[in-house]
Predict the 3D structure of the following.
Amino acid sequence: MKTYAVLAALSLIAATALAEPPAAPQTAAADQAAVSVSPEILRAVAKAAGEGVKPEDIRPTPVPGVFELRRDADILYVSQDGKYVFTGDLYRVAGRQNLTEVRRSELRRELISAVPESRMVVFSPPNPKYTVTVFTDVDCPYCRTLHSQIDEYNRLGVKVRYLFFPRSGPNTESWFKAEQVWCSSDRKAALTEAKLGKPLDAKICPNNPVQQDYDLGKQVGLEGTPGIVLANGTMIGGYVPPEKLIEELKQQAP
C-alpha cells in the first residue's frame, strides 16, 4: 500500500509540473553548476555508453551516478557504468521544475542560433519586441492560417523568422514549393503567394537551404507544423493566434 501511495505522490508532482510552464533556466543552470566531475569520468561514461558517444555528449545531472546523454535536442539518461539508459523527464521537486525540458530549450536555442537570418525568410516590424522562429510547411493549413495573420504578429511587435519543414519530406510537391520560394527574387512575396495556393514561376536553384532546415527541424524535435520556437528555446507545437502568442512571450524568460 505504501508503494502505491509513493507512486501516486510522484505522479501528482509530475502532473503538476507539466501543467505549469518551466521555471527560468537560471535555476537549472544553478543546479548544474553545483555538480562537478572530472573530464576523466566524462570520458569513462562516454566510453561505457557505447560506440559513437563522445565526452562532449555527456554531462552530469544533479542526481549522483546519473548522466545526461545528448542527441541533438533530445535527452537520454545513462548510469555511470553505462549499463542502463533510460528516457523521461527529470524533475527537481523543489519548485516542481522540469529540468529536462529546460535543457531541451537550451539545446534548441543553441541549434537555431547557429542559423543566420540570411538563411531565413523574415517578416519583421521596424523595432521588434520579440523574435520567434517558425518551421513552416507551404501546404500546411495551420501554417497558412498563421501566415494570413503575419501583419498582426508584426503589429504586436513580433518578428517571425521562417525555416522550411515540408512534412511530406524530400522529392515531394511541398518540398519543391519550398525550394521555389527560396529561389524566388522576392522570397517574402513568394512565400505569401505559395501559402495562398498560387503557383510559382521560380526555377529550383542549387544550394538552397530546404534540406538543412528540414534536418534542423528533426534535430530540435519538431513533430508537426507550424513549429514555433521562442527566443529562449521553448517550442510551441501548432498554430497560436497573435494575442495568445504575445501572452506566451510575456511569460517566458528571454
The chain has two domains: 2-102, 115-251. The two ends are 45 Å apart (CA to CA). Confidence is low (pLDDT under 50) at residues 1-10, 22-27. The chain has ten helices and eleven strands.
